Fold each of these.
Amino acid sequence: MKTVVIDAGHGGTDPGATYRGYQEKTFNLSIALNVQRILSQKYQVKILMTRTTDVTLSLGARTSLANRENADFFLSIHNNAAGGSGFETYIYNGPLNPNTRTYQNIIHNTTYRAIRGYNVRDRGKKRANFFVLRKTKMSSLLIEVLFVDNPGDLALLRKSAFINEVSRGIAEGVADALNLPKKSTPTPTPNPDALYRVIAGSFRNRENAEQRIESLAGQGFPGFVVPTTISGTTYYRVQTGAFSNEENAKEQVERLKRIGITDAFIVRGEDTPAPPQPEPEEPEDGLYRVIAGSFRNRKNAEERVTALAQEGIDGFIVQAEIEGVTYYRVQTGAYADRENAEAQVERLESIGITGAFIIGGGLTPPTQPDPNPEPEPKPEPPVDDGGYKILGDMYLTACQLDAYTKTVNPDAPDLGRFYLKYGEAYGIRGDVAYAQALNETNYFRFTGDVRADQNNYAGIGATGGGVRGATFETPEEGVHAHIQHLYAYASKDPIPAGLEKVDPRFDLVTRGIAPTWTRLNGRWAVPGDTYGQLILQLHERNINHALQEMDEQREQLNDVLDEI
Ligand SMILES: [Zn+2]
């Protein structure tokens, strides 16, 4: 499979061209993310992004990612400024790889065709001595989409329709130039109402549906959410296939059962209210019970009970037999009032237990499948990818860590000492963990979902879409939780004696799954093809800053010696 690096120009402290409060970096990123989405949805290609958020990134970090990953193509997306209007593309003005000119021709023409309807001027195919073109070993192209400081161009850049069109043009151009094979798509069927849709679970809470999709995807069943309203209540159904033949749909339900999804069912057409709804029923009598996880394996349920106990929440195991399959449910409360049960679910979510659900129906054992039976953890052997280890020695001092950060964010708190203290206690490279915190918090400016007063420097429990995640009492406890969470990933050993468990998600990590920073890709950050690489790049920058300061000090000290 071919590898394409997409580079959104500028970012973080470097806005690129600015005009009336509009910043080039923002347009670059939104186009880059759109191109990534289109390419990965439609084509068989590996996409690496130099950045997916508003972070500062050196030019060298961008090109070394592409060189290190042996990419087939490097595409840098920029917008222009300083007098002019229209679209242009650049390749290096020195020696070129054989395909580079052809790539420029195809991508330039395809992109321009997509946007010419907006009366955009074609400024032509150009060559220049740009750093990212010169330093990339593979064919590379830099696109200047439009001029941020031209009012007509800017008006287009602010239209989402234009961003979509230009992104589509670029994506199609890249696919065409590199001859990327298309992903096979299910054959469209003319009459959607004739389809038997397989619903692998239906949830009152959208997050639970999304979690189901994630676990299905991991087992080779792609799915998506279909919101459905039944008697005034919205359910989020997870659709995993639509078949014109009922037998095929039934087979899909069987396949889902075999991987532990026992609540799958079939609906026909869009509007049929689906008679055999295994959706949460109202209890006939008795209590609403909160289940903090349901497991096929009793040991997993026991682990969950232990993890809950450490959070001060009592739980016990209730065995449930559903369609011949035994589930071990962890019950953590029973309430006469549904609202109280929901409050308990929220409390569980706040400590990172996202799979909790409510069952009603009094003391009789429930007969319906669990809305959220947790799949067994996949046996994935820890793989050492040969990269830089998470466990190991530290080399930067607390002062060096803090000093580098203050070059970007003068208001950053002094956390270096805590990273070294807990790094030492756990045998973790606290100085690299510090770089991870820079990445997660945008240099402690907290521009994402997590707020500064949460002291959560590692985005623990912040799963995206506005979810704030965990909160820690003090900055020190926040750093401790960060290091402890890394320890869960990098080591299989118990928490060192004398140290408390402060990470609410410690027990949710497959212990030892990520011995190296790049093994955190797709695990700590999902998706995240370059997550570990970004952490290491920030660490490199930290080291370079320290080296530079040492050079300066050496010079100063020599001057002092001369003076004495
Ligand atoms: Zn630029």
Amino acid sequence: METVGGTGDPPEAPAVPTADPDEAERRLAMPLGEALVTQRAVRRVRPDPVDDRLVMRCLELALEAPTGSNGQNWEFVVVKDTAVKAALAAQYRRSWRVYGGLGRRLRRDDQTARILRSVQWQVEHFEQIPVVIVCCLRGGPRLPFVPLPPVLLSSHYGSLYPSVQNLLLAARAMGLGGALITLPLWSATAARRMIGLPLGVEPCCIVTLGWPLGRYGRKRRKPVASVVHLDRFGNRAWEPGPAS
Ligand SMILES: Cc1cc2nc3c(=O)[nH]c(=O)nc-3n(C[C@H](O)[C@H](O)[C@H](O)COP(=O)(O)O)c2cc1C
């Protein structure tokens, strides 16, 4: 069995699928720190169904997130219909042919190779993923012929991603495998048609959910001091100095 972790830490046992909301609730008591360090893109999942009550609980917790001006202008389309998944999969395959080809040419390290293999798996098995959630936003900061400050765009899209992260963390705590993806939405127009979105609702990203085929483990990230600056950009005050 493949580990989904990447640091060599001993992986934990794979989560036992459950349809019991009480058991899911018990799992949600996982320490926050543990959920944060082990939540990661889990693309390889079993085709077994995920109980709707668990999906709805994850979404309920997603809605605990903040939104700009407390607009709560999110909409989530839970896709379980194989025909709709197949339409999204066709888009994913099309965009992955371009994007994955570029990735293979530009980055040849082990970590990238692992990600590419895992995306390839997801692209090939998309229709079998039990739950595909299209995360959308209502409205938007567009006015014809009026240039708007980037911060408005930031506030608009930034109103969705905290909820998506909540969703991923809730799924992780329950033992579900979740992944945030965007490539199937390469053409927003086509995606809109597939799931019947009105013009005022924009598809922004997708979260896939299922019971993991692998196990959770720690992931690799940059050292915090390498990306944190004090007062002004470039003053890496927390970077360890040369050994004296
Ligand atoms: C905005 C955004 C878009 C992403 N789009 C995709 C995607 O289309 N397909 C995919 O497989 N992963 C996608 N990812 C997931 C990233 O590849 C993943 O978060 C990254 O490789 C780190 O993985 P890890 O958390 O397992 O270490 C996306 C992530 C973000 C934040």
